[in-house]
Amino acid sequence: DNTDIDGVAGALGQASGPAIVCGSGGTAPAAVVGLAELGVTEITIAARNADKAARLVDLGARLGVASRFCGLDEPELGERAASAAALVSTIPAEVASRYAAIFATVPVVLDAIYNPWPTPLAAAVAAARGRVISGLHMLLHQAFAQVE
C-alpha cells in the first residue's frame, strides 16, 4: 500500500478544478493519484524531464483525468498556474524558488519539502494569501495510513 497517496490526499483534504504537479520524481506519482482521488478535472505535469513526465501524464489519463506536460521553462507554465486551483510541488526548495513568482497565485499549495521551512515557494504563496501546506502534513497523513 502506497501511503504517499494517503499523505497527499489527506494533506490537501479537498481539491477540484485544474491542478499542477511540479516535478517528476518519486513523490510525483502519488501526487497524481492523490489529486485524481480528490476529483481534480485536469493535471498539468510541470517538469524538466519530458520523458519522466510522460509516464505521469499516462498515469493521470489511466485514472480518467485529462493530463498534460508543460516544461518548467515554457511560457505556457504561467497560464497553467493562473488557472490552477491546486499545486503539489515535489521539487527541491532551491529549484522551486526559481518558479515561486509564477506559482504564487495558486490558491492551495502542498510543498512536499519540510526542511528548510518555509521554502521560498511557500513564502511566496503565503504572501499572496494562498493556503500553504507543509510536507510535514503529508508525512502526518502517511503515518495515519500506516497505523490504520
TrEMBL record:
Where does the record place a coiled coil? none
* PANTHER family given in the database record: BIFUNCTIONAL 3-DEHYDROQUINATE DEHYDRATASE_SHIKIMATE DEHYDROGENASE, CHLOROPLASTIC, SHIKIMATE DEHYDROGENASE
- Could you mention a single GO BP entry for this protein? shikimate metabolic process
- What's one GO MF term for it? shikimate 3-dehydrogenase (NADP+) activity
Gene Ontology CC terms: cytosol
Q: What is this protein called?
A: AroE
* Record InterPro entries: NAD(P)-bd_dom_sf, Shikimate_DH_fam
